[in-house]
Amino acid sequence: MEQLKELGYEVTYLPVDQEGRINVADLKAAIRPDTILVSTMAVNNEIGTIQPLLGVAELLKQYPKIHFHIDAVQGIGKGIQNMIMNDRVDL
């Protein structure tokens, strides 16, 4: 994200709840006409929180020009395969 900032992109970070989870409604509110990317971890490597990937993917169906990136490396063995094998996930 820092490199994107250096290239002149505006980066928005969402708040998380006490378990480190984003709220899909907060994401929807943060999307602007110039939004091009949503990026999230599937599973937090420190506390194990699983993000609402299916909810994010469903929301992003309304925004086909926004790329959806998931860092899923910590999700191996956590049962997230069906969440990341979604036609709305780009990377």
UniProtKB/TrEMBL annotation:
GO terms assigned for molecular function: cysteine desulfurase activity
Residues of the signal peptide: none
Keyword Protein biosynthesis annotated: no
UniProt cofactor(s): pyridoxal 5'-phosphate
Alphabetical UniProt keywords: Transferase
This enzyme's EC code(s): 2.8.1.7
Boundaries of every Aminotransferase class V domain copy: 4-82
Record's protein name: Cysteine desulfurase
